[in-house]
Design goal:
The complex is a heterodimer of chains A (about 200) and B (about 160). Chain A has about 200 residues and is mostly helical. Chain A is built from eight helices and two strands. Chain B is globular. Classes of the chains: A mainly alpha (about 200), B alpha+beta (about 160).
Chain lengths: ~200, ~160
């Protein structure tokens, strides 16, 4: 009986010993690192990242589809009711974007609205593209509506439909729509600085 | 705030506290025109469809302040029992409605479509008439839309 008790005790004591020993590690060694050891992103790259964080958000991408079908929601589902681009980016002949969307958000129905509510032209399809591809498309006059850098900068920072992204209103259930991940003033600053720095698209 | 507009040919001025009130409620509750229906309240079903300046509009998502100075048409202004609009006549001929609740919206959407596309194809109908009918009278409506186009074109010739 006594031998059996000791046999039980041995593994318990061993485990306890290991656990105690593990709590008495040697203090960790710290290695001093100078600031030169970090590869610092250029401010242009930081501005590019902030701008692209916004442009790939659903508030922007949903109206730059690759299949002529506007998208809705944070999951980018196809617009309900079979709505599509139509001949002029504004919907079909009688049932158009403006059948439901007015020049400002409607908080009673949860229908979003802004001046010139429409899809971006088909040449500006961004859905499914990488950040680099979107930026290249955006800077290409053949795809961006013939805009030069100055005009693009103004479009990206002043156009009412672009700025709607930061005032997207509420859904039909009264809950607010998600905002882009960068605050508006920070985004505008980043876009302006990125263009001032030559609109360089980072290689990576 | 006071908002003036023409509705079914009559000049109306409404005095309303909240200019963002959906036009639907002004039409129904202030002007007592009950033909325009509330369905979903989020511009999804089309029961509240009217015409503003001959353009199709969902009145549940249209703030009354935007109606200032505009010409509005509801189902009551589309035609009369003595002289129905071709859409109304076609709806009667094809015995379209079942419960009838959504039909004013469909008829207004059809009237708007015929203004833009006098001879709509089935594809035009599929794309533009996207209202919802719980009685599923879609088959009869399609026939009525083609008949309405015929009636309208004959009356214009």
């Amino acid at each position: 009986m006594k031998k059996t008790s000791i046999a039980y005790l041995i593994p318990i004591l061993m485990i306890t010993g290991i656990l105690i020993a593990s709590n008495f590690k040697k203090p960790p060694k710290y290695i001093s690192v100078s600031s030169n050891d970090f590869v610092k992103e250029s401010s242009s790259d930081e501005n590019y990242k902030k701008m692209m964080d916004v442009l790939v958000s659903p508030r922007c991408i949903n109206c730059h589809p690759n299949d002529n079908i506007p998208k809705q929601g944070d999951d980018g589902h196809p617009h309900y009711f079979g709505m599509s681009r139509g001949d002029n980016n504004l919907g079909y002949q009688a049932t158009k974007c403006t059948t439901c969307h007015q020049s400002e958000n409607n908080d009673y129905s949860g229908v979003p609205g802004a001046p010139e509510w429409s899809l971006a032209p088909a040449s500006m399809m961004w859905e499914g593209l990488s950040r680099k591809e979107i930026a290249e498309s955006m800077l290409d006059p053949e795809r961006n509506g013939g805009r030069n850098h100055e005009e693009l900068m103004h479009h990206l920072t002043e156009h009412a439909l672009v700025l709607w992204a930061w005032e997207p209103g509420v859904r039909a259930d009264g809950t607010p729509r998600k905002l882009p991940p960068v605050p508006l003033d920070e985004y505008i600053k980043a876009v302006k600085e990125w263009f001032e720095d030559g609109a360089i698209i980072p290689a990576k | 705030m006071k908002i003036a507009f023409t509705i079914n040919g009559n000049l109306q001025t409404v005095d309303i506290e909240d200019g963002n009130t959906p036009l639907l409620w002004v039409i129904r509750d202030m002007l007592d025109l009950k033909g325009t229906k509330f369905g979903c309240g989020k511009a999804a079903c089309g029961a509240c469809t009217i015409m503003v300046e001959n353009e199709e509009v969902r009145s549940c998502s249209y703030a009354v302040k935007f109606a200032e100075g505009k010409k509005i048409t509801t189902i009551e202004g589309l035609g009369t029992p003595e002289n129905p609009h071709p859409v109304q006549q076609a709806w009667i001929e094809e015995v379209v409605p079942q419960c009838g609740y959504c039909q004013p919206g469909f008829m207004m959407a059809t009237a708007a479509l015929l203004e833009k596309v006098p001879n709509p194809t089935d594809e035009d109908i599929d794309q533009n008439i996207i209202n919802i009918c719980r009685c599923a009278t879609y088959y009869r409506m399609r026939k009525a839309i083609h008949r309405a186009a015929e009636l309208k074109n004959n009356s214009n010739s």
